[in-house]
Specification:
Layout lengths: L2 E7 L6 H11 L6 E9 L5 H8 L4 E5 L6 H13 L4 E5 L1 H14 L3 E5 L7 H14 L4 E4 L2 H9 L7 E3 L11 H14 L7 E6 L8 H11 L6 E6 L5 H10 L6 E2 L7 H7 L2 E4 L8 H8 L4 E4 L14 E4 L4 H12 L2 H18 L2 H16 L3
Parallel strand pairs: 1-2, 1-4, 2-3, 4-5, 5-6, 6-7, 8-9, 8-11, 9-10, 11-12, 12-13
Helix pairs in contact: 1-14, 3-4, 4-5, 7-10, 8-12, 11-13
Length: 375
């Protein structure tokens, strides 16, 4: 008889963590495990539940009306009993806190995934503190990088058991024609020269992502690079400040803010270079996705980035909060197209060899087995 593994996440869109959950459950050994996606329904729709349904992954919605909804807590416990869940996996502070309590009430082991912390405001910082206190009590903790495991340890979080399991990525066959078509489309949409060089920074526009340092780096590059445009693909609390910063530095024409992009893959296909200026990361999906398209990366040396980027081989790493170093690495990349191409190829080979969902699924199934004490 197969064991039921439920993955719980509080979300209202389909981003990096959500992709990791659904892609993983699509690859579970169906003879041993049955996976189900569980999420809180706080509006008319929930994108991860819709996506799970679209690929025929079992899914379940738990109605929630606010951050302290005791009916949702009872609904979660009831679901675990009725669905006969054997192991609950939680993602994010709300799921971890509520999932731990539900697991305790139903005597079901809880395995929590830790992807990183943002502390973008006082409320989030408080919830993340609660998350860390809860992680000390769950049955197991999975960090998405060694860097994140070490960060948890710095907070005194070791968990009863802990593991590192990297994020994974789908690596498609290389298609240079699709990349050329995507670049042509992006240049046409934004009225750019067909030979323009496109640099993409993708992610929520919030303080911990460090976009202000990238804008400052673009300011340092003014007049030194031609036909180069920087796309800040995302939305968030820093949007207005970043647009104003670009104007003040005189680089508004070079810094483009298209907002949140549901079809971010088109920008990734079109870009010449990915830049990640973050101040903190777990294991960034955007780097995995850039490498899966054979695109080189310039990134800050934070969190799990060194577990992906080999400096000088598939990209460049610089210290965080250093726009001068960021600018220098960008110029170094753009000034050597042949080296950029070679670095992109090495990135492609790296994720193809070491970051597949099949390998991730095998690792996670081994962890499930140990927690379920299978024979």
């Amino acid at each position: 008889m197969s064991h039921v593994i439920a993955h719980l996440i509080a979300t209202n869109f389909y981003g990096g963590p959500e992709k990791q959950i659904v892609e993983h459950l699509c690859r579970l050994d169906g003879k041993r495990y049955q996976g189900v996606v569980v999420s809180f329904l706080e509006g008319e729709k929930n994108e991860i539940l819709q996506k799970a349904g679209g690929v025929k992954v079992p899914h379940h919605a738990i109605a929630m009306t606010g951050p302290l909804d005791f009916r949702a807590q009872r609904g979660l416990s009831r679901f675990l009993k009725e669905y006969q869940v054997d192991l609950l996996c939680t993602h994010g502070y709300k799921a971890t806190i509520m999932g731990w309590w539900a697991g305790r009430c139903t005597q079901i082991p809880v395995l929590s995934f830790s992807r990183g912390y943002t502390a973008e405001d006082k409320k989030v910082a408080f919830y993340e503190w609660l998350d860390r206190q809860t992680l000390k009590r769950v049955d197991g903790v999975i960090a998405v990088s060694e860097g994140q495991r070490q960060r948890l340890a710095s907070f005194g979080v070791y968990g009863k058991k802990n593991w590192v399991v990297h994020n994974a990525v789908v690596v498609p066959p290389q298609d240079k024609e699709a990349q050329r078509s995507a670049k042509k489309a992006i240049c046409s949409r934004f009225d750019l020269h067909p030979d323009a060089r496109l640099v993409v920074a993708a992610g929520r526009l919030s303080p911990e992502k460090g976009h202000r340092f990238l804008v400052e780096a673009v300011g340092l590059l003014a007049g030194k690079i031609e036909k180069t445009f920087f796309f800040f693909c995302g939305d968030g609390p820093c949007y207005t400040a970043l647009v104003e910063q670009a104007k003040v530095l005189g680089v508004a024409d070079a810094c483009l803010f298209p907002g949140f992009q549901r079809n971010i893959g088109e920008f990734f296909q079109a870009m010449d270079l990915m830049v990640l200026p973050s101040l903190t990361e777990g294991l960034p999906n955007v780097i995995l996705e850039a490498f899966a398209l054979a695109k080189p990366v310039v990134s800050t040396r934070v969190g799990g980035v060194p577990e992906l980027v080999i400096d000088g081989e598939n990209g460049y790493m610089v210290e965080k909060e250093r726009p001068d170093l960021l600018a220098a690495a960008i110029v170094r990349s753009l000034d050597d197209p042949e080296k950029m191409h070679a670095m992109g190829q090495r990135g492609y080979e790296r994720v193809q060899a070491d970051f597949s969902f099949e390998e991730q699924a095998a690792t996670l199934e081994g962890i499930y087995k140990s927690l379920l004490k299978e024979d």
